[in-house]
Amino acid sequence: MIRWTKRLTIAALGALAAAAPMPAEATPLSAEIPSWLQQHVGTGEGQIAPVVLERARALYMEQVRGGGIQNPCYLAMDATRPSSSSTGGPGQRFYIICEAEESFRAVSSGYGSGRSLPAADFSNERECAQNFSNAEGSNLTMGGAYLTAETRTSFKGYFTEDGERVPFHRTFLLFDGMGETDNAREREIGGHVAMFLRWQCRFSAPDSPDADAEGYVPYGNLVNYTGGRSNGCTTWSEEVAEDIMSRVEGDPTTLYIYPESGDITAVADAVAGQRPLSEEGLYWNATCLGAIGSPRFWTRETLRPIIDQWRASLPEPAPLELPICP
User: Fold this and answer.
1) Which residues form the signal peptide (predicted)?
2) Residues 239-281 pLDDT 10s
3) How far is Cα 247 from Cα 71, in angstroms, rounded to an integer?
4) Model confidence over 61-98: pLDDT tens digits?
5) CA distance 79 to 230
6) Contact 191, 173 (CB under 8 A)
7) CB–CB of 222/263 below 8 Å?
8) Sign of CA dihedral 319, 218, 230, 126
9) For burial by CB atoms within 10 Å, which of 38, 257, 310, 326 has the most?
10) Nearest to 197 by CA among 172, 171, 218
11) Phi first, then psi: what are they for 99, rounded to 5°?
């Protein structure tokens, strides 16, 4: 049952470099991967690739030791993996790791769909991501380091559940980026449940706090796109989204997303030179590499002018006026 109506608030992170004693909840991590976690390391389904885990752990350890993080869990994502598993279900490419309780969970997650514009096609197919960027408006995934931040909950409209019209409020977990991901706020990058409301009509609900000036609220079909594509955000199933939100509410943690721009460029160079990735010390999911041929990173300096030009060419949209529901 969808109950995304709770409005959450997360305290500001504060200065990451501020000196603070290490909390008991986030015990010091050994540089060596513990044996219970090693069994989850690999390139098979449900496993986390070594480079993804190593970088995710290093980011988390750095933030814990710097006093910026107290959460006992950290997050990671491998955006090179396919959307579907060998059984046909959603592929597992997002990871929730809590070393203090020896907990590892691999779940599905969406990645950026990109765009196909007259001046450039940087769109991604549903199964494997080929294009990546940190350009605002690109709708693409950007690998690198993030911190979970506050949440925002917004009203999307009404849908029918168990024969009744009920409201759908979707909670959005914002990410703060570092380095190449430093414009995460500008891009409105974060995580949320993989659902949206496809509007059909509107009905009169003057007593609803979400009604417009005329007393109407939108109504539509609730669409679930778990494991599919997004506008660049990280998207999860309803159950996973609830779990993650409960873990980071008021208790931010780190998120590391693979691949970064350097990884993408290095893999593309190796593919162009017909050099095996293993011999170059590089990683990309083999299934997706076979599907896409070669990945590409689009710099914001390249894409932003193209996106701005496309936006400027669009006509003024006509005011949206939904028909009255029957």
Assistant:
1) 1-26
2) 999 999 999 999 999 999 999 999 999 999 999 999 999 999 9
3) 8
4) 999 999 889 999 999 999 999 999 988 889 999 999 99
5) 12
6) yes
7) no
8) negative
9) 257
10) 218
11) -70, -30
Contact 128, 111 (CB under 8 A): no
Sequential DSSP letters for 52-95: HHHHHHHHHHHHHHTTS---S-EEEEETTS-SB-TTSSB---EE
Question: What CA–CA distance (Å, rounded) separates 181 from 87?
Answer: 34
Residue 223, strand partner residues: 196
The C-alpha atoms of residue 86 and residue 305 are separated, in whole angstroms, by 40
Question: Which domains are delineated in the chain?
Answer: 35-313 (2.40.440.10)
Task: Answer yes or no: is pLDDT of 18 > 80.
Answer: no
Res. 6: pLDDT tops 60: no
Other CB atoms within a 10 A radius of the CB of residue 190 amount to 24
Tokens read off for 203: 């009905």
Q: What is the pLDDT of residue 16?
A: 30
Element of type H or E holding 162: none
The pair of three-digit structure tokens given for residue 46, joined into one six-digit string: 């449900």
* CA 69 remoteness from chain centre: 20
pLDDT of residue 155: 95
Q: What is the pTM of this model?
A: 0.88
Q: 37: closest CA among 22, 65, 56? A: 56
pLDDT at residue 306, as a whole number: 98
Biggest CA pair distance of the chain: 66
d(CA 211, CA 46): 44
* Total residues found in the chain within this entry: 326
pLDDT digits (tens, 9 = 90+) for 203-242: 999 999 999 999 999 999 999 988 778 888 899 999 999 9
